[in-house]
Amino acid sequence: MLILYLKEFLFKGHMNKKEKIYEGKAKIIYATDDPDLMIAYFKDDATAFNNKKKGVIADKGIINNAISSKLFQILTEQKIPNHFIKHLNEREMLIKKLKMLPLEVIVRNIVAGSLAKRMGMSEGDKLKRPVLEFCYKSDALDDPFINEDHILVFDLCKDQELINIKNQALRINDILVSFFDVQGIRLVDFKLEFGLFKGDVYLGDEITPDSCRLWDKKTNEKLDKDRFRRDMGGVEEAYQTVLNRLVKQAS
């Protein structure tokens, strides 16, 4: 069987996986012997439109774990605080336990998806600068769009935390746009989630084709979850293409 993860991330030590803390749409989070550390298990389940569309993408968890591990390592090397510690095995990574903030931060470089609909524009136009958008993370409310005033008035985070989140999101965007460009991929837009670790803002969650729009630089072929959302087919092949390019670049 093709090894889908990157060997340099394998954890050499031992960490006992204990009780399940949380199960989301794409991952299960487990406690460990260390109260500051958790294990994230990546599932093959696929959802779209705030869980209204459901399915399974074969080996998605394996592929996303490998991709996210690689990207978190790159961000760590660039001094971006994040929860990633080690790639443990095909489906699991060891992470810091963050107190997650109820925010989704969307970074947009190219017009696509809901932005195209809201602005009455065609997909594909490059924005003159990156655009940050915020959503209140609530499945019950379908993750509504909010602005910075909402965030501060409703105490979703503190003023300085919001400043740090914005600065980190734009810095992450600069790093990943450059990295993906070398792989022949356009980073169209992506979602980030942040939390607090010992009082500081850290990047959490994942960075994968589930949470990013990724287009081939030459053909604009979609290499992300839009293939699932829009019933385009070739979902597994698209995810594998992204991983193959990362593996090729790392070798």
Give a quick summary of the entry.
This protein is α+β, with helices and mostly antiparallel strands and 251 residues long.
Topology:
Layout: E1 17-23, E2 27-32, E3 37-42, E4 45-48, E5 53-56, H1 60-77, E6 84-89, E7 92-96, E8 99-100, E9 103-110, H2 113-119, E10 126-136, E11 145-146, H3 148-153, H4 159-182, E12 185-192, E13 194-197, E14 200-203, E15 212-216, H5 226-229, H6 235-250
Helix pairs in contact: 1-6
Describe this structure in words.
The protein is α+β, with helices and mostly antiparallel strands. It folds into two domains: 7-99, Phosphorylase Kinase, domain 1, CATH 3.30.200; 100-237, ATP-grasp fold, B domain (D-amino Acid Aminotransferase, Chain A, domain 1). The chain is built from six helices and 15 strands. The protein has helices at residues 60-77, 113-119, 148-153, 159-182, 226-229, 235-250, and strands at 17-23, 27-32, 37-42, 45-48, 53-56, 84-89, 92-96, 99-100, 103-110, 126-136, 145-146, 185-192, 194-197, 200-203, 212-216. The strands form four sheets. The protein has a five-stranded antiparallel sheet, covered by helices on one side. Strand 6 and strand 7 form a beta hairpin. It is globular, with a radius of gyration of 17 Å.
